[in-house]
Predict the 3D structure of the following.
Amino acid sequence: MGNENMNEQDQNRPQYWQDLEEWRQSDEFKEMVDKEFQSSPFAPEDSQSGFARRDFLKLMGASMAMTSAGCLRRPEQRIVPYANRPPEILPGRANYYSSSLVEGGEAFGLVVKTREGRPIKLEGNPDHPFNEGSLSARGNAYILALYDPDRLTGPKQNLLNKEKSNRDTVSSTFEEIDKAFKQSTAAGKLGLVTRSIMSPSTRELISEFVRVTGAKHYVIDDLDYSVVREGQKKSYGQEVLPRYRLDKAQYVLTIDTDLLGSYLTPVEHKKMFSKTRNPEGDMSKLVSFESLYSMTGSNADERFRIRPSEQIKVVVGIISELINKGRVSDSAARDLVNRFKNSFKGFQPFEAGLLGRVADELWANRGKSVVAVGGLPTQTGLGLDLQVATNYLNSILGNDGKTIDYERSAHNSYAGTNDIERFVSDVEAGRIESVLIHGVNPAYSQPNDSGLVKAIKSLKLAAYTGAYNDETGQICRYLVPDHNQLENWGDVDGQTGTIGILQPTIRPLYKTRAFQDTLLTWVQTSGRASGLLKADSYYDYLRSYWRRKVQPAVGGGKSFEDFWYEVLQTGVVRTSEGRRRDSVSSSRSFRSSSLNTIIPQPSSEMELVLYPSVALGDGSLANIPWLQELPDPVSKIVWDNYISISPAYAHEKGIHEGDVLDAKVGEKTIALPAHIQPGMHDAVAAIAIGYGRMGGGKVAEGIGKRSIHLASYFEGQLQTSGLSVELKKTKKNIPLASPQGHHRMEGRQIVVQATQDQYKKDPAANIHKHKVFSLWGKHEYKGHRWALGVDLNACNGCGDCVVACQSENNVPTVGKKYVMEGRIMHWIRIDRYYSGDPSNPAIVNMPVMCQHCENAPCETVCPVNATVHGDEGTNDMIYNRCVGTRYCANNCPYKVRRFNWFNYVKQVKEPQHLAMNPEVTVRARGVMEKCTFCNHRVKEAKMKAKTENRPLAEGDVQAACAASCGAGALIFGDINDPNSKVSQHFNKQNGYSLLEELNAVPMVKYTTKIRNTSELKLDDNGHGGGH
Amino acid sequence: MIRREPLVEGNKSLKQVTDDICALVERPPGKSWMACFASAKILFLFYLSVMGMIVATGMGLMGVNSPVGWGTDIITFVFWIGIGHAGTLISAVLFLFRQKWRTSIARTAEAMTVFAVMTAGLFPVLHTGRPWHAYWLLPYPNQRGPLWVNFRSPLLWDVFAVSTYATVSMVFWYIGMVPDLATLRDRAKNKVRKAIYGALSLGWRGTAKQWNHFEMVYMLLAGLATPLVLSVHSIVSFDFAVANLPGWHTTIFPPYFVAGAIFSGFGMVVTLMVILREVMPVFKDYITMNHMENMNKIIMTTGMLVGYAYASEFFIAWYSGSKYEQYVFINRAFGPYWWSYWIMVTCNVVIPQVFWFKRFRRSIPVMFVVSIFVNIGMWFERFVITVTSLHRDFLPSSWGMFNLTFYDLGAIFGSFGMFFFLFLLYTRVLPAVSIAEVKPVLGVGKEGDHHG
């Protein structure tokens, strides 16, 4: 016991002690300690304050902890050690993935540049046979469709009011939507409305879905080419879209058809056309008969003005000339011409004998010419007749099967809009109860009297897969946003046998679901899925489809995994059919009977033409500011649509630029500002479609007006041209914004033109050389020396390079107000000049970017040395050093320097910042900027070459503008390499520098614009109109 | 012998002179001064807020754009720098030429120079995209390499020219004031005044030795300031003349700018003197009609000089055979900015011709109106040079227009607020007429006057 007591006492004893008293813990000791300290460490409670010191400290600490915990919630952030970096991703280095893009009617092969797992730049896939590395402006701009801040972030339910006209939404879930469709749709009463699907696996999926569930599939496209297909059917019995082989054509005749700008596949057309434009050899000739001034017309060697209602007269007139000259002796054709005889009276809009000359030239180029008609401006009441007559002309000229191919259209799965009627009648008859709309925005793109909107509104349930709560979204109960194309798997076969793959280059940014996954989910919940339809996801479906269908067709005897890997790497495969892509199908026999129904129709006093603009097309990408700020190739106007009228008409009616006109077509009206467009026919007004979006995003909303509602159905066909219109001037004026200040060259040597004959006699024809001399010797460049060649003969002014540059170099957009104030930021611009008579002038285009002058005027005047010459011959801009005196911009004769008037970075909204190229500095307010010749790309290529221990070779580096140009008008490279393309370009005899006499010695060299015509339309060196 | 006109009227005694001039500083201000000062101050505050907005938001608030990269700021900068020239001419050049009539107006003219240069100096800074980095235009040892300024750039020469001009003008003005400041100190009845004027008068006691030193320094400074009258505006003109822009790239610019500067400077001096005579009537005795007439003669002469320059520019444009040059000049007179060109010609060449008549040279209302027109005309001259040359240069595609915004107008009118704020303050705290210099010329015109 004693021991135990001892132990108990021991436990009370301190572990460390100073003296024996303390160890014993005697009462005296405790008393002494109590006295010694004001508050005893032993006291459980201080008698005076009520709190022990330690308790106080404890409480204090706890309360501090509590208050701080209450105020400061640490965000849950996880950092990841670099040792575990995701595979493939190396910070600071770009990864490139092959993919594809469907835009409008074109299917591009893509190379997607990604940095740190986010796509930042789209470029054409050089291995893809369709675009061969080039990319359209809309293709370039598509990256912003991915990072659009206005995109739907997840499934939504529209709070539809009675009229189904409001825009308020609440969040929904995919499950809710799936359930709603399952419950409210009787078997077989589901409708699918889609655009023409260019994806073979999706086509298969839809057809299986339709087969299993009994759903009905309707195809409706935003841009309608049905008339072309029907014309083919009527003429040849085949319902196809033709493929114009401009590369095989020596003579191209277009009638209101914007082959190079917007019709069918402009990218392929531009590429093929430029191949035939070499002035050394047999240069092709382009002749255009036009009512409005299109981009194709601006490239034409000869251009003539007609009314839309006269389109068919041109074709019949040419046929009649051929008959007169005894070249054709077809009774059906004779009858046709006879029917038109009376209507030719008064149809002499151009020089006498012109049609005869054109007929002769066409005849001389039998089998080597193309007569092209199609697109909205040709869809007059006689649109179908025009197609048939043109097909006949192509057949008698032997073009069919030589320059016109009917098997390898670039949009082979195109089905048109004929389903609208079927859809509306099915809805009315109650054959469908609910609908899923995918890839098309019919409430916007189809005329109101199609009855579509009414039909969709009357359905029990409608869902829309679009990215916005736009025109169609607003009339649907549910919004089931599809992935962006860059987030999704997929495949695409624009041309038969050439199949591209879509790889997701980023995880879906938002809660979206692939349209195909929606179908799979629906078919699986219905319990009727079998076979491929049991796939877990569209990705599995796609792979199975490729294993079963594509791999056997391509062949090669590899395992599927190897095959798949290779496909993803190259981005495109070709079946045996695809390998025959460049061959042309044999000619077809024309059904002469189809000519019998063609009868002339009277013209109206003033005719309206609707057309898709080169920048916006059908308007589906209208929310991308880059496209809104891309100047139209002809009018150079941005951020608006307008009514184009001719100068003579404007003069007659006292209309000034920007005066708002009320256009009345039947009962329908539109009020838009007038644009006085030289080259318009005097009895024609033209309005672009693609504007006036509602709910398509904050950028698109309120820009221009929707003009397609003026179109109507005429004998079952959409009539978008030759509409009888009344224009009435109002008192309002809405100024139009154009970055170009003046439209004539004022007799200065800016764009030099020559005819082919002149060129052949003297390659340097029409170039006025200046004698320039310098007191100083030339600087020597020992390594590389970068230069850019501009082939004005190849440039068609489309503006693809402008958007490519904007995307590559983080160039901001400024909006209409500031474009009007002269603050557009483009580093490369296309100057468009008119020459000749304002009623029908010729157009020349000139891309102008920083000229990287050897004797740069900007460099000497900068007080702080913020712009200096690089050792590779470039004129470099040091943003950090720039104070912003703008002296350099004043002294730049080419006016290519752009100033940051405001802090433009501020306007970049999340997630747009992800589209920024980290290789290019985002410029601060108050500094100057300009084209750098993409020197970050040069640097990257040099580093790559160095690590591979080889010298930099030709083709290793491309400026972004040059890379996107399909026509080969921009040639970038090292001028110190005598074999480089750019060196050869600089040595051309028809080369000249812009404003040579200033002796700035630009590192950009232009070559003459050659026209295949006998006489140039030149200015009489005066100050003629056209401001 | 022709009798000389007296330089000071009113038959003043030495004491009266001192009393007259010092009274302005010692007395509480009158109502008219207070009214002027209040409005100038409000305008000045408005100016500060306009500048604050521009610095905070960006140059985009003003009308400048591409192609017109220089606008209101540069125009108004050149305008104010030009104004300053008359002051230096009167105080330094006329001093060296022993023109005694200058004595009573020299101080105020010189003050105008200093304030005009101060007003002008803000503009180039405000005009830059990043004014907080404007000090990079100064060549100072730095840790960026060291990174030096670009000595080839006329803008840099401008920095040196203007800063030298500002420094020399201020020193010259201040040194000349020292004896008068001592007078103020001696008359001061309150301790604070005594201390301030005491410090400013640098211990001036008026000994013969001090006078000897003073006159020597004053003459040397006058000698130093004289070339500046020619150099500053020559160098400002280089900003334009050295650029390759048609309409700017002209060898006539240096003399043309100097003549214009003196012209506009005298215009402003006349404006100010008329105001001063009205606001402080005692000055009518010191700044006499003869002074005004002399200045009006100079205005007419220099007005014809700039007229000659306008004409010769057109001649050279035609004679050069350069398309661009010719177009710019035709465009100046008949293009979209024709009105600015004809305002300039009317104000600068036509209107001053009224001074051929003595009646108008000696009429206060006429000279006031003319001097205002001269000021307007000279602002438009810089507008014409800057804007009409830039807005349509080599490539027609890049032609554009320049429109004044609210902020442009704020900067133009606000700068007058700053100038008049400083000037009115000056008339209240410093002797506006040189007491020490006026006293020796009191006798002029009195010789042989037996009644005097």
Summary: The longest strand of chain A covers residues 94-103. Chain A touches chain B through 56 residues (CB under 8 Å).
